[in-house]
From TrEMBL:
InterPro entries: GntR_C, TF_FadR/GntR_C, Tscrpt_reg_HTH_GntR, WH-like_DNA-bd_sf, WH_DNA-bd_sf. PROSITE patterns: HTH_GNTR. Gene3D superfamilies: GntR ligand-binding domain-like, Winged helix-like DNA-binding domain superfamily/Winged helix DNA-binding domain. This is GntR family transcriptional regulator. GO terms for molecular function: DNA binding; DNA-binding transcription factor activity. CDD domains: WHTH_GntR. Keywords: DNA-binding, Transcription, Transcription regulation. The keyword Transcription regulation applies. Pfam families: FCD, GntR. Residues 44-111 form the HTH gntR-type domain. It comes from the Bacteria. Residues 21-48 are annotated as: Disordered.
Length: 267
């Protein structure tokens, strides 16, 4: 469920690939059509790789907020050409992770109290609706996804420590899996795309707090997640959505006070 792509570039890629495939049907194997298709596929693959690498670096905090993203430096760092990097930066701009301004070029999007509050409030609004739909539509497979993802989250939470970057990355992945399992029966691809985009925006604020748990207000996060899961599995829409909304409200408060992630007043 990692895709967030309601962007024009993905649609263009689809039709370009389809066009190359169609034109190649009337040409012999190994002819110009096949070569063009192979080149198109390779270019797309390089763009996807550049997008994935940059996205990860921004979300993990390897690139600081408002840090310039210069093509020459990125090419040296990742070993990717200018064209795939431009494509990746354009996609990241559409996702809200990068900004682009005339004469200033690309920069990592800033963090701010206003953006944090807006992101978490919007996320709660959208996900409670998706959870409500999932409770009404969910089947046995949906219930199994919730149970298994909650179990995996608990196991990873026990294994993760502030001095273990790999385990913290795995913890965030398990956390994402659980929240997406909750809403996975909504029946709306658009909702899923919006939820993914909002989740990515919130992770930038969450990552520093994962490695500084002792400096953040005490919360029994597994109990909160367990209560949401129990209410959802009991098909109690009112309680489940209320608990999810409260979970995000507390998270927003915690992140706004986290000393590891000082936030500005404006975006």
């Amino acid at each position: 469920m990692e895709s967030t792509d309601f962007r024009k570039s993905c649609i263009l890629d689809f039709f370009l690939a389809a066009g190359e495939k169609g034109r190649g049907r009337d040409r012999p194997p190994g002819g110009p059509g096949e070569g063009a298709a192979r080149m198109s596929k390779t270019a797309k693959s390089m763009g996807e790789q550049a997008h994935a690498m940059l996205r990860h670096q921004i979300i993990s905090g390897a690139f600081a907020p408002e840090q310039p993203l210069r093509l020459a430096q990125l090419q040296e760092r990742f070993g990717v050409g200018f064209s795939p990097l431009r494509e990746a930066l354009t996609r990241l701009t559409a996702e809200g992770l990068v900004t682009s301004e005339p004469m200033r070029g690309f920069r990592v999007a800033p963090l701010s109290q206003e953006d944090l509050r807006d992101t978490m409030e919007t996320r709660a609004f959208v996900e409670t609706e998706a959870l409500r739909r999932s409770i009404r539509r969910g089947d046995d497979d949906w219930e199994a996804r919730i149970v298994s993802s909650l179990h995996a989250l608990g196991r990873q939470f026990e294994r993760s420590g502030p001095d273990q970057p790999e385990s913290l990355a795995a913890l965030e992945e398990r956390h994402r899996d659980f929240h997406f399992a909750l809403v996975s029966a909504s029946g709306s691809r658009r909702l899923e795309q919006i939820i993914d985009s909002l989740y990515v925006g919130s992770v930038r604020y969450r990552m520093p707090s994962l490695s500084n748990r002792q400096s953040t207000p005490a919360r029994d996060l597994m109990a909160e997640h367990g209560a949401i899961a129990d209410a959802a599995l009991a098909r109690d829409e009112a309680l489940a959505t209320c608990l999810l909304d409260e979970h995000y409200r507390l998270t927003a408060e915690m992140l706004s006070m986290a000393p590891a992630a000082p936030l500005g007043r404006t975006g």
